[in-house]
Structures are given as structure tokens and as C-alpha cells.
Amino acid sequence: MERGSTSSSEELTCFYQSGPKNINTNSINWEDDEHRRIIMACLVQSVYVETKELKLKKGQNQARHWYDSFHFKQVEQLKHDSLLYGVVFKFDHSKAQSMGHQNLEKSPSYILAFRGTENIFDMYHDMRLLFERLSQSDRINQAIDKTKSIILKNKEDRYRDKIWLTGHSLGASISTYVGLHIAEQDEYMLKTFLFNPPFSDHTLLERIPKAALTEMLGINHFILSRPIHSIKEGAKECAANALKKFGIMKKMEYEGEEYKNIHKWIPYLFINTRDFICNGFVDHFEKGKNLEDVRPNGIWAFEIKDEKHHIPRIPWKIDKYFPHLLPSGYLVKNTKKIDKNFMSSHKISQWWMINLPLESQVYTKDE
């Protein structure tokens, strides 16, 4: 959700300067989790770079090095209001085989990659996500339609595990909506790689470190300490008053025939534990069985009990799914301390680094 979170710096556009180091792109092992993580991050970065190049009308074509180095090619660009937000890639299996890629039976055929926030139009979609209306956007509908189209053209069983999704920040949320929809409607469990997916619930403001907020605003934290506290308390009171006005909200559950396949979809979630935008997923999965998340003044509550998700429906909610309340997921935590600033922990560039201090755990829910 952070604006310019990856490609706003000129140096990050060049694959050979800023791309993954100490990895031979012609010796990729598709059974290696690190190799797959690096490639998925690079594909997302290519979307960021191409978005910038299209905006600036540059003819450098730096974006292609982020994907053709791994023997992918673009087959289609996904645009909304003439702005690029995603790309469909096809893997050149024959070329990769001739160049020495290993375990190609584990490789994809198609990958849909979605970038995160880069401009004011993306921020509009960030707000839609926050207020649970993102599913009504043209981006979501276009991404779902394109994914279904690829599935229909590749219906053979050998392609069932060959269509992948990946995205960063807002793009991770788009991938989540697509993955949930396809799992429920088409019973395809698409392999999905979500980098810094936003955990966009009411606790977001609470999770923002004071130092990070003052860093973003460029004001001394001693000056802002009392206003920040007032903002948080005011937000709680505002939410409580709104809920009183609308009354107790109806609860939804990820259960029954309507959601019968949701728990079978297990996306990879790459989370930096210092990133307040996405680190809510850590508590969601690690403490999920005993989670009791009481909303302001105890009016609005979320709980997981008896292996069921009991979820409140807010007054303005339109989205069917709750992308921040996934029943299953492969949680991958990056515990490395980023020296630069708090927002660096949200950048895609961390995920194409090798030898990261990662902690992994799969969490699943029975039907």
C-alpha cells in the first residue's frame, strides 16, 4: 500500500545493478523455495519498472531484464484507465531446459503478477481495500476474468498446478481476491506468492510505530506524541459511535457450501515482522486458535472458535471475502532488521535477496 515502495528510486530499475546477487539465472532449481521466491519478486518488480517507464515514456526497456533473465516473456499487459497494474507472463520451458534449469516439472506455465501502490489512482484502490469494496473494482474483475481465461485454455490436468499468482502490497490483495474466487468457483487451488499483503483491519493504526509515523510526516516524534495518541483514541471513538448508530452487525462465517473450498487454498505469505502494513498476519495465524479481537468498546468482535471463523459485517461492506482473514496460509517471516527506515520493511526489493533469515510455518484449517 505504500506509494513508490519499490521502483521510485532510479537505481532499482536496473536488474544488473539492483537485482539478485550470487544466483545463476541459468541454474534455477524449481524445487528450491528460495529460487522461486526470488523469481516471483523479480517478476513483480518488472511490473513496477514497466509502469514507471510507460509513465516517463522511456525507451530503455529495463523492465524486460527482470523477467527474461529467468526465461519468461510477456503475453499480455493488464491496464486500468490506461495504467499498467499487472502482467501475464509465460514461461519458456524449452529455453529454460536448454539453459540448465532443474526440476522443471515443478515450474509454472503462466504467472499473473500485480504491482502495488505507485500513484494517486492506486491510493484510491487502497481505500477501497480498507473499506472492503475492492472486489467491485475493474482491476479485480479484469484479473479474475483473465485468470479464468487462461485456465479454460489450459484445462488439461498437467496444467492444473501450472498457473500461478504473485503480487506485492496492493497487488498481493488483488492476487488474494483472485485466488479466493478461483478456489471457490472453479475449485482450482492456484499456487500464489503474496509479498507484504496488507492486513487491513481496524488494528492498522494501532500497529503503526510512533517513530514510523513521524518519519513519514517528517516531524519530531516528541512533538507528535500527544496528537498521535489523540488520533488513535479518536479513531476508536468514531468507530464505536458509527457502530452504535448502525447497531450490532451481522456476523458472517467462512463455512458451508458457499465457502467449501476456501480452506484448501494455501497461499505463501511473505511477511516482514517489522512491516506494520502486513505483520497483522503473524498474530492472525500464530494466535488464531485463541484469538479474540474485541472492537472499540466491545461492540464489535471477531473470534475463531470451534475451527470456524465468526466474522462481523461492517455497514458499508460489499466484498464477499476477507483477504486479511485467510483460513489457511504458508507464513514466511523475514526477521532481518532493515537499517534504513521503517518503510524499507515493506519494499519488494528485500524478497529477491539470498540467504534471508526466514521462519516458515504452514497453517491450515480443516473443512
Automatic annotation (TrEMBL):
InterPro entries (UniProt xref): AB_hydrolase_fold (IPR029058), Fungal_lipase-type (IPR002921)
Transmembrane segments: none
Alphabetized Pfam families for the sequence: Lipase_3
A single BP term in Gene Ontology: lipid metabolic process
Domain Fungal lipase-type: 142-190
Protein name as it appears in the record: Fungal lipase-type domain-containing protein
Species: Zostera marina
